[in-house]
Amino acid sequence: MNYLKIKRILDVIFALLGLIFLSPLLLLITILIKLDSQGPVIFRQKRFGQHRKVFYILKFRTMKLETPSEVPTFLLENPEECITRTGKYLRKSSLDELPQLVNILKGEMSFVGPRPVVCQEISLIEERDRYHANEVPVGLTGWAQINGRDQVKTKEKARLDGEYVEKIGFWMDFKCLLLTATSLFNKDAVVEGKQDDFFEE
């Protein structure tokens, strides 16, 4: 059987189990967000998925309502002023990504793959084309994320996504998931705010 078919089956099983077993945590986060600030609990944003197909990625809302919804965080001048108190913890711990289990169940994402790109990041999408990285399912975590996360510039991120495509398979996905747990403790890898050199080589 083609690995991508096996990957899809595993995605559905573990996404469903994740939603069931993490439901108390999801409820707690929902309550904290509602107590902390006004607005919806879930944030929806257009992203490019596999084959450049646009879908709405789901996250727990970490920003105040007045924050521009279609602007990537790294392009904001003063992101710290836009992030809610609960949002700061959710972003540092990546717990804001948990609603993407629903995206995985719907087939819009996988657990492992190149991260879905914000529609304004055309340069990254074009760079990924060079490595065929737009042809595989996008992921909750990926090879580029565990090799620098927000610190990786566009061309290097695309190269790392291409490296994932070359090595895609059960052990590569397992390695990505295993290393993701470690990278979550590296708070320096999370960069908030405008990065002038982000698109340099």
From TrEMBL:
Gene Ontology molecular function terms on file: transferase activity
Keyword terms, alphabetized: Membrane, Transferase, Transmembrane, Transmembrane helix
Family, as annotated: Belongs to the bacterial sugar transferase family.
Organism: Enterococcus lemanii
Keyword Heme: no
Span of domain Bacterial sugar transferase: 7-185
Protein name in the entry: Sugar transferase
Domain of life: Bacteria
InterPro entries: Bact_transf
Membrane-crossing residue ranges in chain numbering: 12-33
Cross-referenced Pfam families: Bac_transf (PF02397)
Species lineage: Bacteria, Bacillati, Bacillota, Bacilli, Lactobacillales
